[in-house]
Amino acid sequence: MSAEMVASSVEKFMGTQKTRRTLGEYVSELEVLGRLTPTVQEAVDKAERLTRENDFIFYLAGALTGVSEEMKARYGQVGDLITTHQKPGAKMFGYAPHLHGTDPIAHPDVSPEEVRDIDYIFAAVVADGHFNFMYPLAHGNAVEEAWAEAANIPAVYLMPESMYTSRLIRGMHNILSTIIYTDFETDGLPQVAQLLDGIERATK
User: Fold this and answer.
1) What is the maximal distance between C-alpha atoms in the chain?
2) Please, which residues have CB within 8 angstroms of residue 145's CB and are 6 or more apart in sequence?
3) CB neighbours of 152 closer than 8 A, spacing ≥ 6?
4) pTM of the model as a whole
5) In the predicted structure, residue 137 carries a pLDDT above the cut 90
6) What is the pLDDT of residue 194?
7) What is the Cα–Cα distance from 75 to 130, expressed in whole angstroms?
């Protein structure tokens, strides 16, 4: 990313007024619906702890079903990179669902309803931003992008240079920037680092 693109993205991120419901409001909705299961309550408790301990929570959206462990590792790499930012007032946490309870292989006993309700907590209720992996294509992260748009949560897309996405997904109004890479580790991760460093510097 050019310095100008980083500066513009950081300015938009810092100036965004999110329209998220509170965690308490969401828990009340789940109770009314009879969906506050012990597994979901565990996720609520985790969300409360993470929001107390961090200034920014980033949701890492990406395909999980049928995806290789090598590909999933990319989400973890971005999560680890986010968590290296621990400046007072800018402590960051990257939430990757497959590492925290909703991986289809590692957590097969979590029901589809629980997956939806848990992922919504971290994607639409406590998230300050999204890093959305557009490759490989998946249903889930398209849904999560729609949740983010509805809550006015800024999203950064990540995709290889050869990929072409639909006009609908490119037209969402909460897109902060799009990181295009030829090799993820060589020129994808460094662009993520540039953006995170910019947010950290902008935090007083």
Assistant:
1) 49
2) 61, 130, 132, 155, 169, 172, 174
3) 16, 17, 18, 19, 20, 174
4) 0.96
5) no
6) 97
7) 12
> Hunting for tokens 């419901």 — which residue is that?
21
pLDDT the model gives residue 1 = 84
Intra-chain end-to-end CA distance of the chain, in Å: 23
Q: What's the full length of the chain, in residues?
A: 204
**Which pLDDT band holds residue 105 (cuts at 50, 70, 90)?**
confident
What strands, in cross-sheet order, belong to the sheet with 155-160?
A: 86-87, 90-95, 56-61, 129-133, 155-160, 175-181
